[in-house]
Amino acid sequence: MAADTQFLNDYFGRLETFARPNDAVFEQLAQVRDLWVRSKNAGGKVIFIGNGGSAGIASHLAIDLGKNGHIPAACFNDGAQITCLSNDYGFENWIAHALRIQGKPEDTLVAISSSGGSKNILNAVEQARKMGISVTTCSAMSPENPLRKLGDVNLWADSHAYNIVETVHQFWMMAVIDMIIGKAEYPPN
After folding, report:
1. Range of the domain at 73
2. Average model confidence (pLDDT) for the chain?
3. Is the residue at 3 inside a domain?
4. Which of 9, 48, 119, 144 measures 20 to 30 Å from 189, CA to CA?
5. pTM passes above 0.90
6. Mean pLDDT for the stretch of residues 118-140
7. CATH code where residue 41 lies
8. pLDDT score of 128
9. Whole-angstrom Cα distance, residue 88 to residue 135?
10. How far is CA 130 from CA 23, 82, 91, 101, 133, in A?
């Protein structure tokens, strides 16, 4: 039991580090909100992308932003789309081609990658830039990861623990959605 308590104290402490008030993060989250609202007002949408757990987070964020935040949102993680575009263009290029097909300059891309080095995510951000699409990045691990330098807003979690990083990325983006809604507690409908 003592080992469990020690582990959980460390684990919760790591999460608590990211939940503490931090003016720099607050400013970045406000900038993300402004990008999303600007996209909505211009007739665009927010597109979320990620791999693995980050794809799951992307899907959750797109649903909540559209349903509760009333900002059009999409997530590129449909199995048929992934296999079709991967087959035709290669896995490292499928998201860039999905963006080419479905994106427009009024949109905002949210690229979520714990490592910040996933080639398909980096190629999608490059495509977004070519199309004039705003970009928000969520990354972690190395402070020198390539994704961290590519967004209009770059959120970075100083951790190498995937579950901590993914929890923090979701927490930050859900905070932005709740900023748009204007409250943290609201009914599901």
Report:
1. 25-181
2. 96
3. no
4. 48
5. yes
6. 98
7. 3.40.50.10490
8. 98
9. 25
10. 32, 21, 20, 13, 8
